[in-house]
């Protein structure tokens, strides 16, 4: 009978679950928008992954939970999201020295040393600016889907400046640009640039070093990736599944529990 390890990341907007084997290989993963049902959906995702892999619940040797809802999920251990991101990224990309994690309600920059050791970090958890929620508010103001922002930004021939670091004031700037007849593409490019400037300001305080990687749900936005690359004047790596890297780190932490 095989042994497996589960990582659960219950974030502010989404739940991510990763199942790995004793070699650290991902057996299955799932992502679901959660809201107030984070614990319920995490349990559902776990059940789905087990069913798809043909694995019994008692084959999970250890479970680690991370994210905002980690204290409420039945797990063997709770680990901070920063530690899990570092562990997950170091496993996938050993050469990465700086992680930019843009989530639903906060953004983080993590500086790594040898073997994924955390040297320093900085985070924005007091304001929605530069986060997934910021993009959702801007999309609502423009009457488009948040998933459309990235593709539209890549079509821009000019960028409409969004200078405010406050989401409410930034929304007012977007409305002003609309009234002035600015192009939709230029406005969304300005929104992506605003996110890039926000995370760059966070990163400067810890002296980021290459190789730089962008993760979190916002890393799926091509416009933001382009804007971040331009702001940092560097080629920014993006994992194939950027939403699950912290959950992967949690699963790896669960594996470490059984090895201690």
């Amino acid at each position: 009978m095989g042994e497996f390890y589960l990582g659960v990341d219950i974030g502010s907007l989404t739940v991510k679950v990763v199942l790995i084997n004793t070699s650290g290989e991902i057996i299955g993963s799932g992502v679901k928008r959660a809201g107030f049902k984070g614990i319920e959906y995490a349990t559902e995702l776990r059940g789905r992954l087990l069913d798809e892999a043909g694995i019994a619940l008692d084959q999970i040797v250890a479970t680690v939970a991370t994210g905002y809802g980690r204290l409420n999920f039945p797990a063997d251990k709770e680990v901070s999201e920063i530690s899990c991101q570092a562990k997950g990224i170091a496993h996938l990309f050993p050469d990465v020295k700086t992680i930019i994690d843009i989530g639903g309600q906060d953004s983080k920059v993590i500086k790594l040393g040898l073997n994924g050791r955390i040297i320093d970090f900085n985070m924005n958890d007091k304001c929605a600016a530069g986060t997934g929620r910021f993009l959702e508010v801007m999309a609502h103001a423009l009457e488009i889907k948040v998933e459309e922002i990235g593709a539209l930004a890549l079509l821009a021939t000019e960028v409409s400046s969004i200078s405010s670091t406050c989401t409410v004031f930034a929304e007012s700037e977007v409305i002003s640009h609309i009234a002035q007849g600015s192009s939709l593409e230029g406005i969304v490019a300005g929104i992506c640039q605003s996110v890039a400037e926000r995370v760059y300001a966070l990163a400067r305080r810890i002296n980021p070093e290459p190789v730089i990687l962008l993760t979190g749900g916002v890393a799926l936005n091509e416009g933001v990736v382009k804007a971040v690359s331009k702001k940092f004047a560097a080629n920014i790596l993006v994992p194939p599944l950027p939403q699950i890297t912290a959950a992967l780190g949690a699963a790896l932490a669960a594996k470490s529990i059984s090895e201690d």
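The chain has two domains: 1-93+243-260, 95-238. The radius of gyration is 19 Å.
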